[in-house]
Amino acid sequence: MTPTAPRSILLLNGPNLNLLGTREPEIYGSDTLADVEALARTTAAAHQLELQALQSNHEGVLIDAIHAARGTAAGIVINPGAFTHTSVAIADALAGVALPVIEVHISNVHKREAFRHHSYVSPVAASIVIGAGINGYRLAIEQLAWLLPEA
Ligand code: DQA
Question: For the residues 90-115, what does the mean pLDDT come to?
Answer without folding.
Answer: 98
